[in-house]
Specification:
alpha/beta; 6-stranded mixed β-sheet
């Protein structure tokens, strides 16, 4: 029983529009999110979201009608053909969370269609894999990409005993890889990608419509992409709370499947960057 009237600053004849556009350009450079609201007039949710590029009209739906290339694509990136690729985050509490996807389109511009999810509450890796077994996936048809910390600890963050999450998966014949291969001689294991880089990558693919989630099969992933908050934890902004685990699982999978260039770093030398070419700090983006 209410009427809404929208007023656009760009149409206000009492405002000096050329100056307004200049101010808007400066604001986009300093704080793109504030510019979206204050200059472009978009209504944004209260609080910061980890995946602001998620749009239910663009990122929820059935499989694209452009051809399944999962086996071909995984043969190229994992050196073996599988029918599905899955991402998994190891958290005994609240849950072990996994997503399973197929790949469509072309190898140059793949589209991930997330076809299944499994969230096993207050569980062990074995509990989670029991649920996966019930769904009739097999080690021959499904490749897992897991949180890199699973190479040295389990989902309850237990460092002792030498039986990490990866070892539990492998003992049950599952093939599992970390999101990134180990590239240096430092340390024994590879590490997860930087949180900011992972969020940037997932948001970029959401924005391009290259991540599509089946809303019937994956209702919790769809909800978490919409609701997952960002929180400052020990001086770093990162996804937080129950919505973070299933979306992290998706992020690990995307990171493995989609190679990313080395991030640009600002050297601090004045005048080196233009507005168009400067890679803004992720904290300003999200």
């Amino acid at each position: 029983a209410a009427k809404f009237f929208g007023f656009r600053a760009a149409l206000n004849t009492a405002i000096y529009q050329e100056a307004r556009q200049d101010v808007g350009a400066i604001l986009r450079y300093v704080d793109p999110k504030a510019a979206t609201a204050d200059d472009e007039g978009q209504w944004l949710p209260v609080g910061d979201r980890a995946y602001p590029k998620f749009d239910k009209r663009r990122n929820l739906g059935a499989a694209p009608d452009i051809g399944d290339i999962t086996a071909e694509y995984l043969r190229r990136v994992a050196h073996r053909a599988y029918d599905f690729a899955g991402g998994v985050d190891f958290q005994g509490t609240p849950h072990h969370a996994g997503v399973i996807a197929r790949i469509f389109g072309t190898t140059a511009e793949p589209i991930l269609h997330v076809v299944d999810e499994t969230l096993t509450e207050d569980s062990t890796e074995d509990d989670f894999l029991d649920d996966i077994d019930d769904k009739a996936y097999t080690p021959e048809t499904l490749l897992w990409i897991g949180d890199a910390s699973g190479q040295w600890q389990d989902g309850k963050h237990n460092f002792s005993g030498g039986r990490g999450s990866f070892a539990i998966f492998k003992a049950r014949r599952w093939h599992i890889k970390p999101p990134r291969v180990k590239r240096t001689e430092r340390g024994e294991f590879s590490k997860n990608p930087h949180v900011d880089d992972r969020l940037n990558l997932v948001n970029r693919f959401l924005d391009a419509g290259r991540i599509v989630v089946d809303p019937i099969a994956c209702p919790r992933l769809a909800e978490s992409l919409r609701e997952c908050p960002l929180k400052n934890v020990n001086g770093r902004r990162k996804p937080y709370g129950r919505h973070s685990h299933v979306t992290d699982a998706l992020g690990y999978l995307v990171t493995y499947l989609i190679p990313t260039p080395k991030p640009m770093r600002d050297t601090g030398v004045g005048g080196a960057h233009s507005l168009d070419g400067f890679r803004r700090a992720p904290a300003n983006l999200y």
